[in-house]
Amino acid sequence: MYIIESMEKDYCLKCGNCCRNIKIDLKRKILFFDGIQHLDENFLSMLEIIKTEDDISFCKCKFLENNSCSNLNKPEICKNYPSSPFAYIPRNCGFEGDVFMSLEHVKQKIRKLKEEIIHYEALINTSGKSEQNQYQKIINSHKKFIEKYKPYGSENW
Fold first, then answer.
1. Are 94 and 69 spatial neighbours (Cβ–Cβ below 8 Å)?
2. Is 71 left (phi over 0), alpha (psi -120 to 50) or beta?
C-alpha cells in the first residue's frame, strides 16, 4: 500500500473532525478510518457510538477534548493518520489535497497495469509457448496487485 509521504508535514488544522466522525462496521469488525482495516478492540474501546446507519456506526473518540487528543497513550493508527490514500478525510481537512494526490497516484498505477494486461493478452495470441507462459505470469501478477485495491474500487479505475 502507498504511504503518504508528507505525513511529517503538519497539515493538521486541529479541527478534530477526523476524531469526531469515525466510521466502523461492528458486524464485520472493519474500521473505515485510515483505509479499510480490521477493527482493533483497543481502538474500539476509545470510541463512543453517536449513531448507526445501514450497519455503519459513526463514532467519536472519547479522548477528543477541545479539538485535541488527551490520550497520552495514543495508538499508532492515530499518530500516523493519515498514512493511506484511502483514509477518511473530513471536508476542508488540511490533508485533503495530499490524500487526493496520493490516491490519484495509486489510480494511475492501476490504470497503467490494466493497459499492460491488455498489451500482454494481445501478445499471447502471437507468441510461442515459452513467451506465452512469461506473459501469463506478468498478467497474473498485475491482476493480483489490482485485486488488493478492489475494496477501494480498483475495478472502475
1. no
2. beta
- Residue 85 CA to residue 154 CA, distance in Å, equals 13
The C-alpha atoms of residue 128 and residue 38 are separated, in whole angstroms, by 45
Report the predicted TM-score, pTM, of the whole model to 2 decimal places: 0.77
Q: Cell 456506526 maps to which residue?
A: 57
DSSP 58: E
**What tens digit of pLDDT does each residue of 7-37 get?**
456 788 989 999 999 999 999 999 999 889 9
Residue type (1 letter), 19: C
Q: Identify the CA nearest to 18 among candidates 84, 85, 91, 83.
A: 91
What Rg, from alpha-carbon coordinates, does the chain have?
20
Degrees, nearest 5: CA angle 6-90-112? 55
Query: Where in the chain does DSSP place strands (E)?
Result: 22-25, 30-32, 36-38, 47-53, 56-61, 64-65, 68-69
